[in-house]
Structure formats: structure tokens, C-alpha cells
Amino acid sequence: MLSGAKRKICIVNPFEHGGGAEYQISLLIEALASSNEYEIHYLTHFVDKRERVRKYQVSRIGAGGPIPRLGYVAEGRSLYRTLRELGPDVIYQRVACAYTAVCALYSRRSGVPLVWHVSHDTELTPGHLDRARNFLRLRLEKWTAEWGARRATRIVVQTEFQAELLKRNYARTADAVIRNFHPPAAEPIDKSGPLTVVWIANLKPWKQPEIFVRLAASLRDRDDIRFVMVGAAAAPGKRWAWELALMSDIQSTANLQYLGEMSHAEVNSLLARAHIFVNTSLHEGFPNTFIQAWLRDVVVVSLQVDPDQVLARGAGIVAHSEAALVAAVRTLIDAPEVRAGFAARGREHAQAHHSLRNAEVLKNLLGTSCSQPRRAAKSSS
Question: Is residue 187 one of the residues assigned to a domain?
Fold first, then answer.
């Protein structure tokens, strides 16, 4: 790299927009762009077609459209060719899949550092996240992701628990534990409306939305409480039997309102007026929704997800059973002083541990990675 020239970073992720990982990437890009030191490229399969201002150049991997039948491994040649054409100084890859392996292969052959950022606990465990119909695609994605993860130059995790999983299952030590980061709440916090209990996630089996539906049904005697679900669902013609049954149950639960998919800003606006946020997932990485809720004085109640035991230490409630979840929500509904205590502790935790200072730490790690002399190229074994 010439003296004074911008350092070139390639961010590689299947989606340009979507869930928590993509939101974290957008905040990282803001931090990188603010210094005017980087030429930023975003390499992705699913390009956001909405009108938007980009502070980076986007390159589509593959032909777009649905995920290939054999998964992202089918786009390995396209991704590798794009990396070779761009010639980055550092690669940042998030969301484990075949892209992780392609980036690792390019990294080893070119000597360019690869920073792999863990997005979910299951990326560090042998099992699968979803029991999809295409088992072969699942196996290919998992095998290639593991191959790439073992060969990444640096690995960033979100929690101490992920660092333990990385050591146990991959015999690697995390280079950094960088917790997810969010800007301060910009919306006016207004809790004067009806007491509102919210659930926010895409409607997937491992998110267990049916438990929230049952929670609302069990509290139907409380007509003063508003239950709201937010999240993307499959199109009506593409729903499996599980999704059809779920949507039927939602529609038949009189005290439950389903709002569908909402933008990040719309979710934050909803949370600024809500009182209790419920998470029913089997597993997560570090849910962005926890931080969004904390920053807006919403009490977090989780069925079982509790990254690094932050809820058990006072930032919220972890129920461990469906019956205890119902009891916890009932208690919070009837005890405003208890809600206020949890809300204050959650806000303090988020401000102390999940501010944009963490984005600067990640930005500096990437800068350090590409400032070091390039490693000698290695074979692909």
C-alpha cells in the first residue's frame, strides 16, 4: 500500500440488509467512513434494492436471487474472483457460511489478513441452526464455515461464552471480545400509553414465536395489556405447515397484534413506548433487541437466552421455563416499581457495555490488521 493511500477493506456477508449482523456492519461502516482512511467494499449475494446512500461500493456475489440449491459454496468462484480483482488490505467476514472458507482460502494464498466476526453461538458448535429441508446444503455450509473459521487470521467474538466455545470446539483463542454496539436512543421515551409487551424477531422455528402467542393467550384476562409481535414471515404461498399453524394461532389470539416486518427505526419507536420485551429463542449470539430495549427503558425477559449471564446479574429476567415466563410477565405487569428497577439497570448496562466505543475498538483492530506486514502466502491445505 502506498504511503497516504486509503486502506482497502472488503466486508463479506451474504446480506446487505436484514438482521442484527447487518445492522452491526452498518454501524461499523459508519465508524470506518468517518475517518476517511478506508476504501470500503461490501461483497454480498443479496443486494439491498431500496434507495439508500452508501458510503461504500457494493459488489454482488453470484447472480442474486434465492440462495443456490447447494448453498453459498456454489458462489465460491464468484467471491474469490471479486476478492482477487479488488485486492483488499484486509477482509472482514461475518455470518458463518461457505463465504468464510472462500475468504480464508484467499487470505492464505495472498497473505491478506482475514478477520472473522462470530455472529451466533451456533457458529461455534457442531450442530445446525435450522432443520431445513435441504440437509445437503446445511452440511456443505457447516463444513466450509468450519474450515474457514479454523484458518482465519483473527477471530472476534461477542461474548466470553463464545470465547469458551471457540477454545473448546476449534482450539482457537479469540483475538478480541467486542460486544455489540448501538447509538444512544434518539426517540422520546414515552411510557404513558397502555402497558405493552413486545416480541421482535423473524418468525423462525428456533425463535419459538409460538411461546409468545401462548403467553398472550394465558394473559387474556388482562384486557388492559397490549401484546405485540414484530417480524418477517414467509410469503403466504411459501409457508410450511409450522408457519401456517403459527399464523392461524396469531390471528385467533384476540389480545395479540402482529405488525409484520418493521424497519430498525420503526422498531426503536415501538420500544420507546413499550414496557416489556420478551425473547423466546432457543439460542442466539448477542441479541441486538436486548440492547435496543435496554436503551429505551424496556425490561428484558428471556425464556433461556442469557449471554454471559447479564440478565441473571440484574439487567433483566431469565425464566428457564414457560410457566416461569408467564409468572415473570404477570409480576412485571402488576409491579411498576419492579419494572422501573429492571429498566434502570438494563439502561445502565447498555450504556456501559454496548456503546459506539465498541465500534471504534473493532475499527482499530481492522486497522491494526491491515497495517501489519502481509503474511507469506500459504498453500490451501
Answer: no
